[in-house]
Design a protein that fits this description.
Layout lengths: L9 E8 L4 E8 L18 E2 L6 E6 L12 E6 L4 E3 L3 E3 L5 E8 L4 E8 L4 E10 L9 E5 L11 E6 L22 E5 L8 E8 L1
Parallel strand pairs: 3-10
Antiparallel strand pairs: 1-2, 4-8, 5-7, 5-9, 6-8, 9-10, 11-12, 12-14, 13-14
């Protein structure tokens, strides 16, 4: 007889004979074929805070044409952008066909991630977004221009508040309230920071 299979595992073969029945056994191992790009995947965890500590898990999962996991394959990883630290530049797939690294960053942005394997190289791709951390008073600023003007009810002072996290990433969408001392003030102010982490206000007084 002949045996073939599309499932990578070890088969036990039993041959029975005689009366009373006796049996003999043997095993044969079917292994996974070459990894196929269309059957493989690159799951990436996120979003992640860009604090140079929190990590995204990047797990290339390689399978052959019959969806069998392919172990023992070297995978090279890259990530675009700046401020990145990878736990490793490459990893080898485990018995489940998975090669895993971790990625952290101090730069809030979307990173394009690749995992390449084989020769000629096949490449899986994906992305992960790193988001700003909490506001830092030490990294944020409040600018007033001009610093001195006539109290005539017409001359206007422009106020610019810029909010950043501990790694200088701008913080969009942060609600901002401005308070002013003194009296006879006329003010306008935005409700939240823009994409650059900026909120503006104006002040004039008599």
């Amino acid at each position: 007889m002949r045996l073939r299979s599309t499932v990578a595992d070890t088969k036990t073969i039993t041959a029975s004979f005689g009366n009373p029945v006796q049996s003999i056994t043997a095993t044969v191992a079917f292994t996974a074929g070459t990894p196929v790009l269309a059957k493989s995947e690159l799951p990436i965890s996120g979003p992640v805070v860009a604090d140079d500590a929190a990590t995204s898990t990047i797990a290339a999962t390689l399978r052959d044409v019959f969806q069998n996991p392919v172990p023992g394959v070297a995978v090279a990883f890259t990530a675009s952008g700046t401020g990145n630290t990878q736990s490793s530049a490459s990893a080898t797939t485990d018995p489940s066909g998975v090669a895993t690294i971790a990625l952290k960053s101090s730069k809030a942005e979307t990173k394009n991630v690749t995992a390449s394997f084989g020769s000629p190289a096949a490449t899986l791709s994906g992305s992960v977004t790193f988001v700003p951390g909490p506001p830092s008073a030490q990294r944020s600023s409040l600018e007033v221009s001009p610093p001195s003007l006539v109290a005539d009810g017409a001359a206007t002072c422009s106020i610019l508040a810029t909010f950043r996290d501990a790694h200088d990433n701008p913080l969009p969408g942060v609600p901002v309230s401005f308070a002013f001392t003194g009296s006879a003030n006329e003010t306008t102010a935005g409700a939240a920071t823009d994409a650059s982490g900026r909120a503006t206000a104006t002040l004039r007084s008599t």
